[in-house]
Amino acid sequence: MASIQAGVNDIDDLDDRQTGGKADAVAEIRNLQVGFRTDQGSFNVLDGVSFTVRSGRTLCLVGESGCGKSVTALSIMGLLAPTAHIGRGEILLEGTDILKLDRKGLNERRGDRMAMIFQEPMTSLNPVFTIGDQITEGILRHRQVGRADAHKRAVEMLRKVRIPAPEQRMTDYPHQLSGGMRQRVMIAMALANDPRLLIADEPTTALDVTIQAQILELIRTLQDDTGTAVLLITHDLGVVAEVGDDVAVMYAGRIVEQAAVTDLFADPQHPYTLGLLSSIPRLDADLGPLPTIRGSVPAPSEMPAGCRFSTRCPFADDHCRTEEPPLAEIATGHKVACWKAPLEENAA
Amino acid sequence: MAQVVNIDAPKANILEVEGLKKHFPTSKALIPGGGRTVKAVDGVSFTVVTGETLAIVGESGCGKSTLARLILRLTDLTDGTVKFHGQDIAKLSERQMRPLRARMQMIFQDPFASLNPRMSVAEILTEPMIVHKLGDRRERRERMNELLGLVGLSPRHADRYPHEFSGGQRQRIGIARALAAGPELVIGDEPVSALDVSVQAQVINLLEDLKRRLGLTLVIISHDLAVVRHMSDRVGVMYLGKMVELAPTAELFASPRHPYTRALMSAVPLPDPSARSNRQILEGDVPSPLNPPSGCRFHTRCPYVRERCRTEEPLLDSGVACHFWREIEALPGPDRTAKPISDAYQRRRALYMERRVNQDDAVAAG
Question: Can you tell which superkingdom this protein's organism belongs to (chain B) (predicted)?
């Protein structure tokens, strides 16, 4: 717990004290800044991101391509590309800053205390090993057990993720399974060592909608059993509404709004959140021409000063274009980074 | 002037598809269990009325993309007929087919893969006109500028290459290319699936606007029911190479008849936490089209399956291919009606839309 002292002035610490009754913080990301080096120079793709993932709860990171949601996940897992560098910030996993760990310390936690499932289960499974081999490998790596026990545990995990005839499936290769089944195998592998933190990066984006419903339901049931903290990364506000407890909306490397899921949908504050919500065609209603968000996300090399959304925001003024708005609490547990919030008072 | 236009008069069918089949043989040498056929499209019939938007919806492997390619004869059919303005295109030679190709065009899903990276936007947009011998050099240049304007790009983009554009802009180029030869029928194969939501909304609005302005007929192939609801007049639902339901959009969403349509609708997560419910979740995967189930192809996953479904194939009748749809329709279905949105969201949404219009006006004014 030595690293807690590093962030005494951090807003999140105050929050934790005020909401002491809440579930345990499994992972705390504090003021994380990640840059990428390119031919044109170095650019921040994450710029001061902070959030907490709690035991038994699902935090959704939602945003469009390039907003930094996957980079956040990869930073936590220590899987960033060599061209990326973490400028500042802390990633506390059960109180330990994993950015300060050596490779051995990180490897002890990866696949054990924290695990990740990816968007494309075909490319994240090894095609030349059986799924049984791949699940037992992770168990043997982290547990003091023999091959027979690891095998038993792997079969048990396949049964938990509801793969029919799990004993027989152990000898299958990934290509013999459907996309949905492969994602179940990924989940079995990720949860085999009872991680405290599960990161799911667009886990259902590559799947058909009926299979997506199965997988989301599965993650939720398993989470109920184990109390794992889940960080779910998605571009789909429907998925957020369906499975999330808490949500952080990301735009261009910053969190622009953070709230309980019900509050975000009932009381959306940030103009970007409003734009996103309004621009989705609805299955349950046809509301006429879709409101859009003007233009597209600026390239990392062309990030504007001040609020990064100011180039596209219909409410932006000079203040927004020069000074960055802080992520400030607007209601209990609801934060927004916008000078104009609440809009009806400051922008009507 | 007296209104003599009879609005009930049947409009002409631009496209008539009858008993369409496409079977792909699999190689014996390379694929275990090869030497059999994949029945990607297996007896599909429908018509497209001039000026409407027909959506074909279904999950991976249902045959919807193959269907799109068959309509344009990008692949040859195994059986059945595809009539464009009454003319059976399957019987035409490649030479006879060519003039028709200017009249029916396609927009592809992936704006990164469907534009030649070595051609400038000007070349991409004028190529269809050259192929179809439309206009001279100057006229083609004028038409190209007009096309760029139509899709919300500007003439200064003409000399750039695809990699210089964002995904949304590339899709606009793909749309402009499809329009270059002046088609009547445009088929969009997942035209907005690869795009982020805010850009997706822009492209959906663009397609609807172009359809209205140019009097196009659209066939939209999609896996996204919400997009389909937003864009289409009628919807066909496909499962494993068969059309299982075909109905006007409002009707389909108000009272889905086929158990598969009901399950699809139930599976879509709505962007509204208060709609979280005990959804009906289909068990299992879509069976392999190499070895589709007997009888009704959906029977292995259908929650209402009975003995008859396993043996007897239901035909598309009253817009639905299910033996028991009358009983099933009477059962409570997926509750997908919109819950009222909160006052706060409604207020800010109105404010956002008002400012958004001003923003566009300001941009238009320069």
Answer: Bacteria
Residue that has been written with the tokens 């800053």 in this structure:
A97
Whether B11 contacts chain A with CB within 8 A: no
Gyration radius (Cα) of chain B, Å? 22
Do residue B271 and residue A208 have CB atoms under 8 angstroms apart? Answer: no
A244 part of a folded domain: yes
- Give the mean model confidence (pLDDT) for residues B309-317: 95
**Token couple for B317:** 């009748």
Does residue A289 sit within a domain? yes
Tell me the pLDDT tens digit for each residue of A312-321: 999 999 999 9
Asked if the Cβ–Cβ distance from B337 to A348 is below 8 Å, we say no
C-alpha to C-alpha distance for B143 and B23, rounded to whole angstroms: 40
* Closest approach of B282 to chain A, Cα-based (Å): 6
Beta pairing partners, B107: B188
pTM recorded for the entire structure: 0.89
Nearest residue to B63 via CA among B16, B17, B5, B97: B17
> Which domain, by its residues, includes A287?
2-113+195-346
Chain B positions in Cβ-Cβ contact with residue A238 (cut-off 8 Å):
268-271
| Residue B94 Cα, gap to closest chain A Cα (Å) | 36
Gap between the Cα atoms of A116 and A85, Å rounded = 21
Query: Given A64, A180, A265, which is nearest B197 (Cβ)?
Result: A64
Higher pLDDT, A297 or A26: A26
Taking contacts as CB-CB distances below 8 angstroms, the residues of chain B near A180 are 285
Q: Which residues contact A269 (CB under 8 A, 6 or more apart)?
A: A257, A330, A334, A336, A338, A341, A342, A343, B348
**pLDDT at residue A9, rounded to an integer:** 41
Q: Is the ipTM of this complex over 0.95?
A: no
Q: Identify whether A329 is part of a domain.
A: yes
Identity of the residue in B264, B276, B358 whose CB atom sits nearest the CB atom of A210: B264
B268: contact with A, CB 8 A cutoff: yes
Amino acid B333: pLDDT: 74
Q: What is the pLDDT of residue B166?
A: 87
The total domain count for chain A is 1
Domain of residue A222, CATH code: 3.40.50.300
Digit-coded pLDDT (tens) for B324-333:
999 988 888 7
Class of domain B9-113+182-365: alpha beta
